[in-house]
Specification:
Structural class: alpha/beta
Distance between the termini: 40 Å
Strand order of the largest sheet: 1-2-4-3-5-6-9-10
Number of strands: 17
Radius of gyration: 25 Å
Helix content: 25-40%
C-alpha cells in the first residue's frame, strides 16, 4: 500500500486541436516506478460527467497497487468542446486512442500493461475502441455499458433522425435524475450540486451513440479481450437485456458477469460501491496475475475454435437463413432494370467490387438514362457502404500524405498492389510531383484504364501500370518501394493464406523502414444483403468475410509490420491503417 498517493492534473491536444483534460493518481513518484508498479488503469466516466467523480474509486485502485488515469471526455468537465457533443461518436473513440497514446508515452508502458475501467457511455467508448482499433490491452471492466439507451418515448430514434434531417431540436434534455442513478443520498446531493455535470446531450451525438451501441452489440463476437461486465438490477437508464446479450456474444476466453440486484445505473456511486470496487480490483488482480496471451486470430478463416470463428459463423448464419423474397426481387431488378443507372450498370458489367465500379462511387455524380435512372443512381451512391468507401479514400490520402511528407528521398517510390482504376493513386501523383508510382492490378481492363489515364495526364515518366497478381509471391522484387498500398483488396478474399502471401511480398518490396498502408472491413451492416443480391468482379455472389481489426492487424504484424496509426469511418465499416516495416 502506498505511503502517499500523488494526484496530478494534465492534458493534451487532440488531433483537431481540442484540449482534453485528464487526472492521474500514482502510488509513487513517476520516476521511481518500477516495471512491476506499472499496472495502469484508464477510467472513463459516464455521459454528462467528468473525471473528478471517479476519484474515490481511483484511490481504491491505487491503494491496491495500480496507477490510475481518468479523462474529461471532449465536451465534458474541464475539456474543451461543445457540452456533451462531438462530430460523431467515432470522434470520441479517436480521442481515446490519442489519450492512451499519451499515457503510453508518459508511463513508458505498452498496451499489455493497460486495463480499461469504464461506466455507461464511457464503457461504450471502451468497447468501440477495443473493437475498432484492436489495441492489445490487458482487459476491460464495463460498468452498465450504454449499448442500448432507454429513451422511453415511442419511436424516439426515428423521431430524432427526422429532427436531424430537418435541422431542429439540436439538443435533448436528459431525463436522468440523481435519484435514479444511486440510492446513496450523499451521492445524489453531490451530483445535483456539481456545476460541471451537464443536463443535456446533443441530438447528433445521442443518435450516433445509439447506432454505435447497435453495431457493437451486433458484432460483439469479434471481441476476444478479457472482459468483466457489471450489470445493475434496477437500471432505468440502459437496457439490461442488451448488456446480457453483449456478454453472451463475447468471444473472450476470460469473461466475468457481475450482477448487482438492487443497484441503480451508477454502480460506481452506489451504497455498495466499496464491494463493487473490490470486485473490480479482484478481477484486475486475476488478469494481471495471468500471462498475457492474446487470442491468435491469424488462422481465423479456418479455425474451429469458438473464440476465432465469429466471422465465419456470421457468413454461415446468413447463408442458412430461409428464402427472402426481398433479396430475389432486388436481384431481379438489378438484372432487368439496372441499366438505367450508370453506377448500377457498371457494377453489373464489371462487378460491384471492381475498380470501375469504385470509380463511380468516388466520383459520386448521379447519372442515368432518364430522371428515374438518375434518382436510382443517387439512391445507390448514397448507400451507407459507399459513403464509407469515400471516407476510406479520404483517410487513405490523409495517411499517405503524412508518410510522403516525412520521407527524405527526393523521389519517393510508391507501390500499389491492386490499384483498380487508380483513382486515389492519380491524386497522389498530381499532389506530389516527384513521386514515382508503380500501379498494379490483375485485371486487364483496369490496367488498360490506368494506362490511358497515364497518357492523358502526361505522367508516363513517373507512373507505370502493370498487370500483376497481388497474391503471387514471385511478382514482388526486393526493396523497390518506400511506401506500399493495399487498399480494398484483402477485404475481397476470405482466405488468410492469400493475405499472408501478399504481405510477405510487400515486406520484401519495401525499403528498410518503409511504410505500408492497408485497409480492412471489420463489419458491414448489409453483409447478408450484399451476399444475396450483388455479384463481384469474378461474376460470383459477393460474399464477404469481415475480418476483425485484431485479425487484420495480427496478419500484418506476423509479416513484419508494426501499426503506428489508424483511421476508421463513423459507421465502423472501413478502416485504414499505417504500419512500418520492422
Amino acid at each position: 500500500m502506498p505511503d502517499k498517493i500523488i494526484s496530478t492534473e494534465s492534458g493534451f491536444h487532440a488531433s483537431d486541436g481540442t484540449f482534453i483534460f485528464y487526472r492521474y493518481w500514482l502510488g509513487r513518484p513517476l520516476d521511481t516506478l518500477t516495471s512491476s508498479d506499472k499496472k495502469v488503469m484508464v477510467f472513463l466516466h459516464r455521459g454528462h460527467e467528468h473525471s473528478a467523480r471517479l476519484t474515490e474509486m481511483a484511490l481504491a485502485f491505487v491503494q491496491a497497487g495500480y496507477q490510475v488515469f481518468a479523462w474529461d471526455a471532449r465536451g465534458n468537465g474541464l475539456s474543451e468542446g461543445e457540452r456533451d457533443h462531438a462530430e460523431s461518436f467515432s470522434c470520441l473513440v479517436a480521442d481515446l486512442d490519442e489519450f492512451v497514446a499519451e499515457i503510453r508515452q508518459l508511463m513508458t508502458v505498452d498496451d499489455s500493461q493497460i486495463m480499461l475501467c469504464a461506466s455507461s457511455l464511457g464503457a461504450l467508448m471502451a468497447i468501440a475502441w477495443v473493437h475498432d482499433y484492436a489495441p492489445k490491452v490487458r482487459s476491460m471492466i464495463l460498468g452498465t455499458p450504454a449499448l442500448a439507451i432507454r429513451l422511453y418515448v415511442p419511436f424516439a430514434l426515428p423521431a430524432l433522425q427526422f429532427a436531424q434531417k430537418v435541422g431542429v431540436m439540436s439538443r435533448v434534455s436528459s431525463y436522468v435524475k440523481a435519484k435514479v442513478l444511486t440510492h446513496d443520498q450523499h451521492a445524489q446531493q453531490a451530483y445535483n450540486d456539481d456545476a460541471l455535470i451537464s443536463t443535456s446531450i446533443s441530438r447528433d451525438l445521442l443518435i450516433d451513440s445509439i447506432l454505435t451501441g447497435q453495431r457493437l452489440l451486433d458484432d460483439a463476437g469479434a471481441i476476444t479481450v478479457p472482459t468483466m461486465v457489471l450489470c445493475a438490477g434496477k437500471d432505468f437508464v440502459v437496457n439490461k437485456g442488451a448488456i446480457r446479450t453483449f456478454y453472451e456474444r463475447l468471444r473472450s476466453p476470460v469473461k466475468r458477469w457481475q450482477y448487482y440486484t438492487d443497484s441503480f445505473h451508477a454502480i460506481f456511486h452506489e451504497t455498495n460501491k466499496a464491494d463493487v470496487y473490490q470486485d473490480c480490483i479482484a478481477f484486475a488482480d486475476e488478469v494481471f496475475a495471468t500471462p498475457f496471451t492474446p487470442v491468435d486470430l491469424t488462422d481465423a478463416d479456418k479455425s474451429s475454435e469458438h473464440a476465432k470463428r465469429h466471422s465465419q459463423e456470421r457468413i454461415e448464419a446468413f447463408m442458412a437463413k430461409e428464402f427472402n423474397p426481398q433479396f430475389v426481387l432486388t436481384r431481379l431488378a438489378i438484372e432487368k432494370l439496372g441499366w438505367i443507372s450508370d453506377s448500377v450498370a457498371m457494377g453489373v458489367r464489371h462487378g460491384f467490387d471492381s475498380g470501375s465500379s469504385l470509380d463511380k462511387v468516388y466520383q459520386n455524380q448521379p447519372n442515368g438514362k432518364n430522371m428515374l435512372g438518375k434518382w436510382v443512381d443517387r439512391f445507390y451512391l448514397n448507400n451507407i457502404g459507399w459513403q464509407g468507401i469515400r471516407i476510406r479514400k479520404a483517410h487513405l490520402l490523409e495517411l499517405a500524405s503524412i508518410v510522403l511528407s516525412s520521407i527524405q528521398s527526393d523521389t519517393p517510390r510508391l507501390l500499389d498492389i491492386a490499384s483498380g482504376n487508380g483513382f486515389y493513386a492519380f491524386e497522389l501523383a498530381q499532389t506530389y510531383p516527384n513521386l514515382q508510382l508503380c500501379l498494379r492490378d490483375y485485371d486487364t481492363h483496369n490496367v488498360k484504364v490506368m494506362s490511358q489515364k497515364i497518357q492523358t495526364l502526361g505522367l508516363g515518366k513517373r507512373v507505370q501500370a502493370e498487370q500483376m497478381d497481388a497474391f503471387e509471391l514471385a511478382t514482388y522484387d526486393e526493396q523497390v518501394a518506400d511506401v506500399a498500398i493495399a487498399s480494398g483488396v484483402f477485404e475481397l478474399f476470405s482466405d488468410n493464406a492469400l493475405i499472408k502471401t501478399a504481405l510477405t511480398g510487400i515486406h520484401r518490396s519495401l525499403s528498410d523502414g518503409g511504410y505500408l498502408i492497408y485497409t480492412n472491413q471489420p463489419w458491414h451492416p448489409e453483409q447478408e444483403f450484399i451476399g444475396k443480391t450483388l455479384t463481384n468482379h469474378r461474376g460470383k455472389d459477393w460474399i464477404m468475410r469481415c475480418r476483425s481489426q485484431a485479425e487484420m492487424d495480427q496478419l500484418a504484424e506476423q509479416a513484419g509490420f508494426k501499426k503506428i496509426a489508424m483511421k476508421i469511418d463513423k459507421f465502423g465499416i472501413f478502416s485504414v491503417s499505417l504500419a512500418k516495416k520492422i
